[in-house]
Amino acid sequence: MRSSNDPAARRSVGTVAAVAAIGGLLFGYDTGVISGGLLFIRTEFGLSALMEGVVVSSLLVGATIGALVSGRLADRFGRRTVLLVTAGIFAVGALIAGLAPDATVLVLGRFVLGLAIGPASAVVPLYIAEMVPADRRGALVNSNQLMITIGIVVSYAVGFLFAPIEGWRWMLGLAIVPAVLLAAGMAVLPETPRNLVSRGFPARAEDVLRSIHGKADVAAELAEIAAADERDRQNRSARGVLRDPALRPMLVVGIGLAVFSQIAGVNTIIYFAPSVLETSGFGTSGSILAQVGVGLINVLMTVVAMLLIDRLGRRPMVIAAFAGMGVSMAALGLVYLMPSQSGLVGWFALVCMAAYIGCFAFGVGAILWVLIAEIYPLKVRGAAVGMATMAHWLANFVVALTFPLLIEGAGATATFWIFAVVCAAATVFCVRLVPETKGRSLEEISEAREEAAR
């Protein structure tokens, strides 16, 4: 069904997306805040290169586990319930990390935060995708990505403000504020109509559809959801997803895109940019401030993507993004072949990082969470999205843990050129396998997938 012209219904849809996307804000803040804090944590706790990787990647271990279990929990208990619990875990993790007396407790706090980030990254886009009309789905699901980028920029700004007092504990602990906002917002939002139908509550699903579509007749959409639910019952379990030949190509697309989005190197910029910029001639505060600029480009290009995603489509945007990211990474590798690592060379490194992040935000960041929330059938959507999200965080973990060691062992040029080659491979993957889904209902996408497999 297309968007209602009822102003109240349009406001309701916008409110749903805005509140749920606070989970994206937390995702972005807790992902990005370590980049500024690490400059001071490294000194206070005397971290080795390996231990730096552990501090950063402990969050990603938790996120991998959280993503793995969140999909099935969201299918069984509802998307809303999982997000309410997630908000509480965010708050606990922020307190542990902010009060950590040593590196071990800090790793524990980051792990707990990961247990929240995993479900947030999987379930927030899923919740929004199931709550909004097809013709606004790309932009509204991408509001989650916008909030992720805003969360990252806020974390950079907070890092800059607390840098003069080396206040990394404040940087980490302030994440409790959006956690409370998420809990308060989700407490008053409804469950998604598709999940309600799946769990046997069609009357409640109809009420939610009316709140989304206003005075429009929702009987046809409710019947379409019920029919899709009946078709998908045989694939209810995650094991069913793996056994169904019609679903395997989409699993490859979802998991492949999730993995490529990480091993292309984006989080070497998100997590380690201040450290990289320090070696390129920026001071400590200067490198954090420069990263704020990179973060603002991330936000700006995400807004551009939101405006274009339902016009240009998912496929051309993600292909162009990976190609641009590869060129940017190749250029960044050249920086470390130059004789001087200061002055104009440092600015060139910053431009390369900004170009890379701009391309990522325009395509990969914008498309990933939209696409994996669209391509799977209702009965296993949570489980399948959880699989793709788990793969995302597992790949993120590997990159975060190995990046400091790669820089130390192979050198910066070789490391960034490896990422450039990965971007080239990702471009080919998208050209060959990624489908177009713009403008179609979730049920239409599911039906088209089944027909293609016959």
From TrEMBL:
Domain Major facilitator superfamily (MFS) profile: 16-438
Record's bilayer topology term: Multi-pass membrane protein
Coiled coil: none
Protein name per UniProt: MFS transporter, sugar porter (SP) family
GO cellular component: plasma membrane
Alphabetized UniProt keyword annotations: Membrane, Transmembrane, Transmembrane helix, Transport
Recorded family membership: Belongs to the major facilitator superfamily. Sugar transporter (TC 2.A.1.1) family.
InterPro entries found in the cross-reference section: MFS_dom, MFS_sugar_transport-like, MFS_trans_sf, Myo-inositol_Transporter, Sugar/inositol_transpt, Sugar_transporter_CS
UniProt keyword Membrane present: yes
Domain of life: Bacteria
Organism name: Saccharopolyspora shandongensis
Family annotation (Gene3D superfamilies): MFS general substrate transporter like domains
TM helices/strands, residue ranges: 12-29, 49-69, 81-101, 107-128, 140-162, 168-189, 251-273, 288-309, 316-338, 344-372, 384-407, 413-434
Subcellular location: Cell membrane
PROSITE patterns hit by this protein: MFS, SUGAR_TRANSPORT_1
GO molecular function annotations of the record: transmembrane transporter activity
